[in-house]
Hints:
By secondary structure, the chain is α+β, with helices and mostly antiparallel strands. The protein contains 2 helices and 5 strands, in the order E-H-E-H-E-E-E.
Amino acid sequence: MYAESTAVVGPLATYSEPHSYDLCEFHAERLTVPRGWEVVRHEIDVEDSGPTGDDLLALADAVREAARPEPPRPPADDGRGTRRGHLRVLPDLE
Length: 94
Protein backbone atom coordinates (compact mmCIF):
# COMPACT_ATOMS: atom_id res chain seq x y z
CA MET A 1 0.00 0.00 0.00
CA TYR A 2 2.61 2.45 -1.20
CA ALA A 3 0.18 5.35 -1.67
CA GLU A 4 -0.94 5.04 1.97
CA SER A 5 2.66 4.74 3.24
CA THR A 6 1.76 1.49 4.97
CA ALA A 7 3.57 -1.86 5.09
CA VAL A 8 1.44 -4.86 6.03
CA VAL A 9 3.14 -7.94 7.46
CA GLY A 10 1.15 -11.14 7.81
CA PRO A 11 0.81 -14.73 6.63
CA LEU A 12 2.17 -15.82 3.26
CA ALA A 13 0.20 -14.66 0.25
CA THR A 14 -2.41 -17.00 -1.20
CA TYR A 15 -2.30 -15.35 -4.64
CA SER A 16 0.13 -13.31 -6.69
CA GLU A 17 0.08 -9.61 -5.88
CA PRO A 18 2.39 -7.24 -7.82
CA HIS A 19 3.58 -5.25 -4.79
CA SER A 20 3.78 -7.99 -2.17
CA TYR A 21 6.71 -10.12 -1.14
CA ASP A 22 6.87 -13.31 0.91
CA LEU A 23 9.36 -13.05 3.77
CA CYS A 24 10.61 -15.72 6.13
CA GLU A 25 9.81 -15.26 9.82
CA PHE A 26 13.36 -14.02 10.57
CA HIS A 27 13.13 -11.17 8.04
CA ALA A 28 9.47 -10.37 8.68
CA GLU A 29 10.28 -9.69 12.36
CA ARG A 30 13.16 -7.37 11.41
CA LEU A 31 11.35 -5.44 8.68
CA THR A 32 11.98 -1.69 8.75
CA VAL A 33 10.07 0.91 6.76
CA PRO A 34 10.83 4.48 5.70
CA ARG A 35 10.30 7.28 8.22
CA GLY A 36 6.66 8.31 8.41
CA TRP A 37 5.34 4.94 7.27
CA GLU A 38 3.08 2.74 9.36
CA VAL A 39 3.60 -1.01 9.87
CA VAL A 40 0.49 -3.16 10.33
CA ARG A 41 1.31 -6.66 11.61
CA HIS A 42 -1.21 -9.47 11.35
CA GLU A 43 -0.22 -12.11 13.83
CA ILE A 44 -0.02 -15.71 12.66
CA ASP A 45 -1.73 -18.37 14.75
CA VAL A 46 1.17 -20.46 16.09
CA GLU A 47 -1.30 -23.24 16.97
CA ASP A 48 -2.13 -23.64 13.30
CA SER A 49 -1.62 -27.27 12.35
CA GLY A 50 -0.71 -26.57 8.73
CA PRO A 51 -2.66 -26.66 5.49
CA THR A 52 -6.29 -27.76 5.54
CA GLY A 53 -7.78 -30.36 3.24
CA ASP A 54 -9.17 -27.53 1.09
CA ASP A 55 -5.67 -26.01 0.82
CA LEU A 56 -4.22 -29.31 -0.36
CA LEU A 57 -7.04 -29.88 -2.88
CA ALA A 58 -6.56 -26.36 -4.27
CA LEU A 59 -2.83 -27.01 -4.63
CA ALA A 60 -3.45 -30.34 -6.38
CA ASP A 61 -5.93 -28.68 -8.77
CA ALA A 62 -3.40 -25.93 -9.58
CA VAL A 63 -0.66 -28.49 -10.30
CA ARG A 64 -3.00 -30.52 -12.54
CA GLU A 65 -4.04 -27.38 -14.42
CA ALA A 66 -0.43 -26.29 -14.95
CA ALA A 67 0.54 -29.77 -16.21
CA ARG A 68 -2.35 -30.00 -18.69
CA PRO A 69 -0.98 -29.62 -22.24
CA GLU A 70 -2.42 -26.90 -24.40
CA PRO A 71 -4.39 -28.16 -27.40
CA PRO A 72 -2.57 -27.55 -30.71
CA ARG A 73 -3.70 -24.45 -32.55
CA PRO A 74 -3.53 -24.15 -36.32
CA PRO A 75 -1.37 -21.20 -37.39
CA ALA A 76 -3.35 -18.24 -38.65
CA ASP A 77 -2.60 -17.35 -42.26
CA ASP A 78 -3.37 -13.74 -43.18
CA GLY A 79 -2.29 -14.08 -46.83
CA ARG A 80 1.09 -12.47 -46.18
CA GLY A 81 2.60 -15.38 -44.29
CA THR A 82 2.01 -17.55 -41.26
CA ARG A 83 1.69 -15.61 -38.04
CA ARG A 84 3.01 -17.04 -34.76
CA GLY A 85 2.70 -14.70 -31.79
CA HIS A 86 4.35 -11.42 -32.71
CA LEU A 87 6.56 -13.03 -35.40
CA ARG A 88 5.59 -13.80 -38.99
CA VAL A 89 7.02 -16.42 -41.35
CA LEU A 90 6.95 -14.97 -44.85
CA PRO A 91 6.32 -17.22 -47.85
CA ASP A 92 9.17 -17.86 -50.30
CA LEU A 93 8.69 -15.46 -53.27
CA GLU A 94 10.57 -17.63 -55.80
